[in-house]
Amino acid sequence: MPFRFHRLSADRVLLTNQGGEFALLDTADFDTFAGGTVPSDSSLHLDLKSKGFLTHGPDETELRVAASQFRTKKAFLEGGPKLHIFVPTLRCNQGCGYCQVSRAGVETCGVDMTSETASKAIDIMLSCPAKAVTMEFQGGEALLAFDMVKWMTVTASERAAKLGKAVRFVICTNLTLLTDEHLTFFAEHGVSVSTSLDGPAFLHDRNRPISGGGAHDIVVRNIARCNEALGSGFTSALMTSTVHSLPHARAIIDEYIAVGQKSIFLRDLNPYGYAIKTGHALGYDTDLFLDFYREALAYIIELNRNGTFFSESFACTLLRKIMTPFGVGFVDLQSPTGEGFGVVLYNHDGSVYASDEARMLGEMGDFTYRLGTVNDSYAAIFFGETMLDIAAAGVAESLPGCSDCTFVPYCGADPIRHYRTQGDPVGHRPTSSFCRKNMGVFRHLFGLLDSGDPEIERIFLSWLMPSRTVPPRPTWQP
Amino acid sequence: MLPVFDDRGVSASIGIDGALYDEDAALAAAYMLTDRCHVAVDREGSVLTVTIRLKDGSGGEALKTACGDFGNALIDAALRARISDQTADIREALLKRAFGELAPRPGAA
Ligand code: SF4
Fold it and tell me: What ipTM describes this predicted complex?
């Protein structure tokens, strides 16, 4: 059967197939397999046959099983984009060094979405074939446009109900402006809250300054208020690691546990907007991030060994792809790419972008990945030239470097990021920071799975229990 | 397949028997080095010549390591090409089986 391989070390080889099955072999077994001489009465034969790596036919059943696995992995494509990001305003009250948005001051005029634009955007969202979609409010700081958020939530709920569709709401907010009125509305309408917490006060306040200071204390206090008003599981926090974060993996995780979070998404700095402009000050080499990631993951595993349930969201996303039959709707790691296929963004001015990153390019004056405007038809937006360009560079299985890569069943293409960082949506994987990070994390996770420690597998599987993990938001910091 | 170094030791040429390794495998292996090397692949008759030069202009051990890495990558690339050839029919059958039914049928509205 078709397979890809990667040498994890001098004596271990990883095999994967299109359905996402994997096998870890020592070099001698791999050579036997590659040479087509695995004895049919050996346990190696049984193992490789049961995982769909080896066949003598293939027969109908083997083909059907393999095809169904492959289709299941790509099931995220069905129904079109399911994450719809709305930018009700660009105004923001914080001045984060790494912010990807060309944010506007709190009093700036002309950077708020009108109800006419919002209404058209909601109609486009509900034209998608998906029966259930997520409507996410981003900014700027979305709470500065709370009246519009309220109007959009109520309007989308009413229109979706008429169409027999479901809408899940998420607001991305820095929580510094939270009031009881906001909480009451969120509770009444089932709005989940996604906020940013970069770690202890010394880190958070350095990364995310606010006039008057003390952003960390406000956020921590307001996460507690959200937990109390909305119940558990409705408030999640995200961290972005700057160069200042890298020496403090344990302190960051301890902080998340202290505020009652059950997981953390360890995110590297994305190469957009302010993040790239201040990249020299806040940025770092991918290898340094990988060191930080490995240290943090080791600590998280240690916590789990000692009885504290706590997971890492990026690892969960990859492990779900690796250890279960299912795909994951995480934009960065989809092939075909999630950009436009899984996510779409409606900007305050009515522009429709293939992703938050495409919007960011637009804010920087590059409209390459603007799909159209809310005045365009559904077909013009999702089947237009721009989407065709994205699709052409958006299938990892056909990209140089990725097509042969053993990790491709679990990885993504991210053409817009490669356009931004390498000037070409196809990109050059040997020098791609996206590839370097993903490959580093894949190698580490498979190394852990290959360690022979049954506790590791138990811990990883416990992270995949649906009710216990918070999937990472596929976008950027609020 | 031993590398031949130029007189300054900053570039190496590797001759590859085209009967043993095909051009696609040589290109795939060369691609893997393009983060740190400039690589050229030429053909003369059945012989492929791969010329490797480190981007930082150095030579010595780093260049020897790059040549060794190329050799290993070439073997893996050749094996991948063989697997791909041997499993091409199954791959196609599998793709058809997985997604064929999603394609519009002729005459369908
Ligand atoms: S981006 Fe890198 S790790 Fe991911 S599939 Fe492509 S080559 Fe492999």
Answer: 0.79
